[in-house]
């Protein structure tokens, strides 16, 4: 698994992109998921780009932003063009967005059709800019569960539209993540990894709370210490370890949590690969 940290984890820290990149490289991350507002605010510093990041053995795996699926289509297209320019600068091929701000069960057929048309328009413009548009599976959107996500992907029907598979949010929807993975696998281009102490605490990930400097962080826990069994999920997708994934940490003690989660993930995949190789070799001997 090619693991990135998210610059949004440092949204309330007084750190530069140089600080973050140097720390990521030192602790063996392979990439950085760049928050859209951070990418925009770095425009005035052209020395920071894909070449600079590559010197530190890093890449921008995804630019995470928020494109409107209602209102002015031209404004949304203008923003896609701007994000396309930023993606080119950073050598990035994915722009993350959400499928609106209403749960799938609260959308009328006409609203669904209008959002699908908007997403097609945005995906087409993304393709023209050489990037893919990646929808995040997330509560209170048209991609809040596997069935709704598949329906939307079918309605849009554009090859540049893909999925950012947020494991916890699909678990939040009452699904078994490994089954959701199998159903969405053809569309998955990125994975978000985070965990929670119990389902009762999931409201801490509500956007209004997450983005607030004084927001509640209770219940946010390291990846392998929460209610969602990541050991079992990762074992089920081990053969897809080449995919990009981001540790999406919103809580305190950012450096120590990210470092420890990364270390445990690398240990898991090393052990998984060793076991897979041993099984393969044993099969060859028996055969």
TrEMBL record:
Give the highest taxon in the source lineage: Bacteria
- Keywords per UniProt: Endonuclease, Hydrolase, Nuclease
Please give one Pfam family short name.
AP_endonuc_2
Q: Which SUPFAM superfamilies match?
A: Xylose isomerase-like
- Domain named Xylose isomerase-like TIM barrel is located at 22-257
Among the GO molecular function terms of this UniProt record, one is: endonuclease activity
Q: Which Gene3D superfamilies match?
A: Divalent-metal-dependent TIM barrel enzymes
The UniProt entry's coiled-coil ranges are none
Name of the protein this chain belongs to: AP endonuclease, family 2
Gene source species: Methylophaga thiooxydans DMS010
């Amino acid at each position: 698994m090619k693991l990135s940290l998210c610059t949004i984890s440092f949204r309330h820290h007084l750190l530069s992109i140089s600080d973050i990149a140097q720390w990521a490289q030192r602790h063996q991350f392979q990439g950085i998921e760049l928050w859209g507002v951070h990418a925009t605010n770095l425009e005035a510093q052209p020395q920071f780009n894909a070449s600079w990041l590559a010197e530190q053995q890093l890449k921008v795996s995804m630019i995470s932003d928020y494109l409107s699926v209602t209102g002015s289509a031209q404004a949304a297209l203008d923003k896609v063009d701007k994000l396309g320019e930023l993606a080119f600068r950073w050598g990035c091929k994915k722009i993350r967005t959400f499928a609106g701000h209403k749960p799938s069960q609260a959308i009328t057929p006409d609203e669904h059709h209008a959002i699908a048309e908007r997403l097609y328009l945005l995906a087409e413009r993304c393709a023209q800019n050489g990037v893919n548009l990646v929808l995040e599976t997330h509560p209170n959107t048209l991609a809040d569960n596997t069935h709704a996500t598949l329906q939307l992907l079918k309605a849009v029907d554009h090859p540049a539209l893909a999925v950012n598979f947020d494991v916890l949010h699909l678990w939040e929807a009452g699904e078994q993540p490994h089954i959701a993975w199998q159903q969405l696998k053809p569309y998955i281009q990125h994975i978000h990894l985070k965990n929670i102490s119990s389902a009762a605490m999931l409201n801490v990930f509500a956007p209004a709370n997450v983005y607030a400097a004084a927001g509640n962080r209770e219940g946010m826990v390291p990846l392998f210490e929460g209610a969602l069994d990541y050991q079992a999920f990762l074992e089920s997708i081990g053969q897809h370890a080449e995919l990009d994934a981001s540790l999406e940490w919103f809580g305190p003690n950012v450096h120590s949590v990210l470092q420890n989660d990364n270390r445990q993930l690398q240990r898991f995949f090393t052990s998984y690969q060793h076991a897979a190789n041993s099984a393969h070799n044993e099969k060859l001997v028996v055969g």
